[in-house]
Amino acid sequence: MNPSPAFTLSNVSKVYSNGTTALHDLNLAVSEGQFVSLVGPSGCGKSTVLRIIAGLGKMSAGDLFWGGTSQRKLAYVFQEAALMPWATVQENVRLPLKLAGVSRRASEAAVREAIALVELKGFENAYPRELSGGMKMRVSIARALVTKPQVLLMDEPFGALDEMTRSKLNSDLLDLWSQKQWTVIFVTHNIYEAVYLSNRVVVMAARPGRVVADIPIDAPYPRDQEFRTSALYNAYCRDVAHALAGAVGTASEVSSPINSQASSTSTMFGSVA
After folding, report:
1. What whole-number distance in Å separates Cα of residue 118 and Cα of residue 138?
2. d(C-alpha 154, C-alpha 150), whole Å
3. pLDDT digits (tens, 9 = 90+) for 251-267
4. Alpha carbons 99 and 106: distance in angstroms, whole number
5. Pair 4, 65: CB distance under 8 Å
6. β-strands 200-205, 210-216: how paired?
7. Are 118 and 92 spatial neighbours (Cβ–Cβ below 8 Å)?
8. DSSP characters for 222-271?
9. What is the pLDDT of residue 122?
10. Which one-letter DSSP state was computed for residue 190?
């Protein structure tokens, strides 16, 4: 992991036109090559943070500083795979390059590589209706990777999948990250997923959204099933759960009560922001 900064969000606030304050004085610095997960109760602005980093939304106040250069090559994986149903796997993966004006011939190698990275070789000519939910998400990830990003933004990509598929994709994502060393910002409401994947778990409080805890996960990679059942893993999960419970309590003091589901310290902590 490179200690040089990838980006820094400094005193970032976001107020929507209806007066809702989504973020207030949020500060977050991420180093190149880090895998950082954002967790927090529903409505805490996790997805808003991703959109600001991606340039898909404007902050009302504050600054975004990129380390070393004015911008980075970004890729965004959304909650839903959002594939074109009339297009094959390879055409769905090719889409970002097509939109960038890259010819079919010039994009062939990149498309093949991205499909191979997500272990979908042999399914190039399949259509979305012929794929499982996990395979559709692999296509969505390949579509992000085809642009060879430096920063990968992931907005709860595995939330709708069953636990076995989710667990496999978590491990596969870590394998890819270890190969490519992207900077990853991963939004999830699942603390077990966050701890398994991340160098750091950043806990946000809602209304207004801000960072209330930044927990380093000091466990070596590669991580596997043995780590999932270790005392260290369980201890980190408890630490994040306690921080999240505190974040929900903090939010309750400054806004209307949070849904009781969000205050639970179980696997699921409410819906995505």
Report:
1. 6
2. 13
3. 444 433 333 333 333 33
4. 13
5. no
6. antiparallel
7. no
8. S--HHHHTSHHHHHHHHHHHHHHHHHHHHHHHHSSPPPGGGG--SSB-S-
9. 95
10. B
